[in-house]
Amino acid sequence: MNSRFIQKKFTATPLEIAHRISVFEQEFHRIEEYQTKADFIRYLVNEHDIGEFECAKGSFYKWLRERQKPPKKTKIKFTGQPKFKPEADNDIDLSGVTDYQETPLKPYFIKFGKAFLFADIHVPVFCREALTIAIKRLKESKPDYVILDGDFFEFGQISKYLQSDSRYPDLGMEIESGKILLQIIRNAAPNSKIIFKLGNHDERLERYIMEGKPQAATLKHVKLSEQLEFDKLGITEVRLAPVMIGKLALYHGHEMFGAESSKNPAESFLMKMPQDLAIGHVHRYSYAYRYKSALHDPEGMRVKIRAFTVPCLRTLNPSWNILADAYRNGGWQNGFAEVETDGTGDYKMRIFIIEQNGRLECHGDYWE
User: Fold this and answer.
1) Which side of the chain, N or C, has fewer Cβ within a 10 Å radius?
2) Is residue 156 exposed (0-12), middle (13-18) or buried (19+ Cβ within 10 Å)?
3) Per-residue pLDDT tens digits for 160-197
4) Do residues 164 and 85 make contact, with C-beta atoms less than 8 angstroms apart?
């Protein structure tokens, strides 16, 4: 390096230093062109008359090292609920406030066997052709379990959206039609256990009765299970809790509000509930998967979890749809599902879509 720069006295003012540092910043992107820092400094000294910095090269080297340091990585530690230790305050007394410790709902477990799944029949606006095909398949498959996965009834007369809509039959006739259909399903599967899971439409009846509406006066019972005589038909009622078929959790879908409105409902449900899922409620088939780390695996092995949504058995053109055939062509589908578990938690899922010509299109048929 030229000695004239070493002998030159450092007399630069802070303003000049700031200006020359800006020169360094403009040239800094070129450091990769030089093999060492010394080559880079020599370039700066020769190209820009900045010999004063040779007297303060210690500061320059420090500045250069700071520029080359990688950003610090912040380690995030997940320690569960944050510990909050408030200071003692004798003025705050919560002894009179009732607290409630929530406990998880107890699922209905199916550890071994084959289940046949109906979703969203919506009596009395069911699709007669699709339901006939599904019941024929039920007779052939001879499952251990028959699961009615919510929205067995429509209850359009007591909907908050269509108040006292005359297009729907009265409650007594609708309930009577449901009892007849349950008897048909029982006859088709005489040796199967039938599980009736309540959906958001089914819950309308008890809410309507509890509100003391005039039409409820003609009904004999408050609970839907009593109206339909579940005890005589050997039917088990499940409300908000899931039905666990191996490691597959079966929900109706209204329990996870908001997920059904997305382009891929299965993906949305999986984001809300990260476990293997089968869902009704959305009236069409969709599928999604993602990976999560096993919580108790020291090697952090990736575990694949899946979600399925099951087609419905109601008509595909609801009365409130002002666009003819919009749902038939672009959304809702008729169909049903079969699930089988082997006792280890693994399951085999088949979802059948009923096409307009009556042909069954199968999705799945593999062990998960």
Assistant:
1) N
2) buried
3) 766 555 566 678 889 999 999 999 999 999 999 999 99
4) no
Backbone angles phi, psi at 331, to 5 degrees: -150, -85
**pLDDT tens-digit readout, 303-325:** 889 999 999 999 988 776 665 45
Exposure of 176 by Cβ count < 10 A (0-12 exposed, 13-18 middle, 19+ buried)? Answer: middle
pLDDT tens digits, 138-158: 999 999 999 999 999 998 888
State residue 270 phi and psi, 5-degree precision: -65, -35
Q: Please tell me whether the peptide bond between 318 and the residue prior to it is cis, using omega within 30 degrees of 0.
A: no
What residues contact 122, with CB distance under 8 A and at least 6 apart?
151, 152, 153, 154, 201, 312, 313, 314, 315
| Separation of alpha carbons 265 and 318, rounded Å | 20
Amino acid found at 288:
A
- Determine the residue type at 315: T
Both tokens assigned to 256: 């996870």
3-state secondary structure the chain: CCHHHHHCCCCCCHHHHHHHHHHHHHHHHHHHHCCCHHHHHHHHHHHCCCCHHHHCHHHHHHHHHHHHCCCCCCCCCCCCCCCCCCCCCCCCCCCCCCCCCCCCCCCEEECCEEEEEECCCCECCECHHHHHHHHHHHHHHCCCEEEEECCCECCCCECCCCECCCCCCCHHHHHHHHHHHHHHHHHHCCCCEEEEECCCCCHHHHHHHHCCCHHHHHCCCCCHHHHCCHHHHCEEEECCCCEEECCEEEECCCCCCCHHHCCCHHHHHHHHCCCCEEECCCCCCEEEEEEEECCCCCCCCEEEEEEEECCECECCCCCCCCCCCHHHHHCCCEEEEEEEECCCCCEEEEEEEECCCCCEEEEEEEEC
Which tokens sit at 207? 């809410």
pTM of the model: 0.70
Contact at 8 Å (CB) between 177 and 124? yes
Q: Look-up: residue for tokens 């009365």?
A: 319
